[in-house]
Amino acid sequence: MTSITVHRQAFQINDLNLWYGDHHALKSINFPINKKEVTAIIGPSGCGKSTFIKTLNLMINYVPNVKMTGEINYNDQNILNEKTDLVDLRKNVGMVFQKGNVFPQSIFDNVAYGPRIHGVKRKVHLEEIVTKALIDVALWDEVKDRLHAPALGLSGGQQQRLCIARALATKPDVLLMDEPTSALDPISTLKIEELILELKEKYTIVIVTHNMQQASRVSDKTAFFLMGELIELDETAKIFSQPSDQRTEDYISGRFG
C-alpha cells in the first residue's frame, strides 16, 4: 500500500491586501507555506517581496500608515487580530535581514539575547542554548575560543551566521530570511546556502532573493511576485523549467523589462 505524505502548513495566507497610506503594495495574496520546506520569493525590486515576508511576523507593524486586510493564518490562527501576542509570534517566527545586524556585544551575548528576554536566567542553560545554536549554524568551531570577544570583530559571513544562530536560539518554528547573502562573498554565500539546506530538516524557511540560481539551489517552492501580486507559486523545478505564466518565464530568463 502506497503511503501518502500530508504536509501541514505553517502559514495559509488568504486574500491579503496591504496599503502604505494610499499605495496598494500587496494585492489579494493567497499563499500556502508548508512546514519544513524552503520557499523562495523572487521578483524585481519594489514588487512586494520584502513587504510580504515582514507580514509573516508582523514586523511590518513598525512601518507608519500600514493597513492590512485578509488573513495570515499561522498554525491555524489568524495573526491579524488584536489578540496576537507579538513577542510570542516573533519568538516562533524569527527573522534574518540582508546585512548581519549583530549587536555591539560579545558573540555569546548576541546569541543569548533572545533567551534572556524570554526568561532564561541560569548560566548553564544559556551556555547550552548558545552552544547548540552556534553548532547548528556551523560557527562553533570558529568562535568557541572567543565567545566573549566582540561580535563586530567577526567577518561579514560569520556575522550573518551569528544572526541566524541568534534567531535559532529562541527555538522558532519558522525562519524568515530577507536577502541573507546579498552582501556576502561567494564562499560565505555557499556556506549560508548549505546551512539553509540543513536547517530545513527542522525549520520552515522563507527566503527573499534576487539570485535566481540561489532560489533554484535551495528552495522546494518558488513564488514570483510582480507589482504587488503573486503571479505564480509552484515547485521550484517547475518554475524554472516550465513556468505557467509568460511573465515568470520572462523574468527568470532575463527578458523582463
Beta content comes to 25-35%
CATH architectural type: 3-Layer(aba) Sandwich
Shape: globular
CATH topology, anyone? Rossmann fold
Count up the domains. Answer: 1
- Rounded to an integer, what's the Rg over CA atoms? 19 Å
Helix run count: 10
Kindly report how far apart the N and C termini lie: 50 Å
- Compute the average pLDDT: 91
Instruction: Summarize the main sheet.
Output: 6 strands, mixed
> Mind telling me the CATH superfamily name?
P-loop containing nucleotide triphosphate hydrolases
Number of strands: 10
Could you walk me through the main structural features you see in this protein, from its secondary elements to its overall organization?
This protein has 257 residues and is α/β, with parallel strands linked by helices. It has one domain (9-252): P-loop containing nucleotide triphosphate hydrolases (Rossmann fold), CATH 3.40.50.300. It is 35% helix and 26% strand. The protein contains ten helices and ten strands. It has helices spanning 49-55, 86-92, 107-117, 123-136, 140-143, 156-168, 186-199, 212-218, 236-241, 246-252, and strands spanning 9-20, 23-34, 38-42, 66-74, 77-78, 93-96, 174-178, 204-208, 221-226, 229-235. The strands form two sheets. A six-stranded mixed sheet has the order 6-7-8-3-9-10, sandwiched between helices. Strands 2-1-4-5 form a four-stranded antiparallel sheet, covered by helices on one side. Strand 7, helix 7 (186-199) and strand 8 form a beta-alpha-beta unit. Helix 3 (107-117) crosses helix 4 (123-136). The radius of gyration is 19 Å and the shape is globular. It starts with 8 loop residues before the first strand and ends in a 5-residue tail after the last helix. Residues 1-5 have low confidence and may be disordered.
